[in-house]
Amino acid sequence: NSAGEVFAGYKKIYRLNGTSWVGSTTSFSTSVENVIVDPSNDNIMYVSDGSTLYKSTNKGVNFSSVYTFPTTVKDIRVHSSNSAIVYAVTQGTSGQVYQSTNGGSSFTSISSGLPSIGKNVIVHQAQDPTNTLYLGTTLGVYYKDDSMSSWAIFDTNLPNVSVTDLEINYVDNNLTAATYG
């Protein structure tokens, strides 16, 4: 988080406290796949366990289930400056990209324009007035912003490879994609 605290997800969420790990009071049925801290509020965290999304409002001490998706959650992101906006990507070629505008209580698909391919990772570009999103898929990167009704391919000098992680470097104004290519 912004205070430099480190969290790890297993069947509980653990926070590094000095030299020891402190576990959350909530136990999950399997090891969690995603642990996301809200970039504008260190008290808010989201984790996913299969298709269920959980939320904590007390730095991961305890969690409550807030939403269940039709398939496994592949990635979660919170808007860079608005805690009410949460993005989720679900697994598989029929997986969707979802957006919540109420802190994860409900979600709407924002997948218009995306082909039936695997969706892996989503990032929100901070400090962008058009709220640009980038999506890493099994066939490269797509992007969408508030001025667009559907996603478009973002493939300048990028071959059709599976993109498993995306990072935005705000100093160099670059998008870095981790691939299997």
Description:
Helices cover 0% and strands 44% of the residues. The protein is mainly beta and 181 residues long. The chain is globular and about 45 Å long.
Overall helicity:
under 10%
The low-confidence runs, each spanning 5 or more residues with pLDDT under 50, are none
Sheet with most strands: 4 strands, antiparallel
Structural class: mainly beta
Question: Any key phrases for this structure?
Answer:
181 residues, mainly beta, four-stranded antiparallel β-sheet
Topology:
Blueprint lengths: L6 E3 L3 E5 L2 E4 L10 E4 L7 E5 L2 E5 L7 E5 L4 E6 L7 E5 L6 E4 L7 E2 L9 E6 L8 E5 L2 E5 L7 E2 L9 E7 L4 E6 L2
Antiparallel strand pairs: 1-2, 2-3, 4-5, 5-6, 6-7, 8-9, 9-10, 10-11, 12-13, 13-14, 14-15, 16-17
Write a concise synopsis of the structure shown:
The chain is built from no helices and 17 strands.
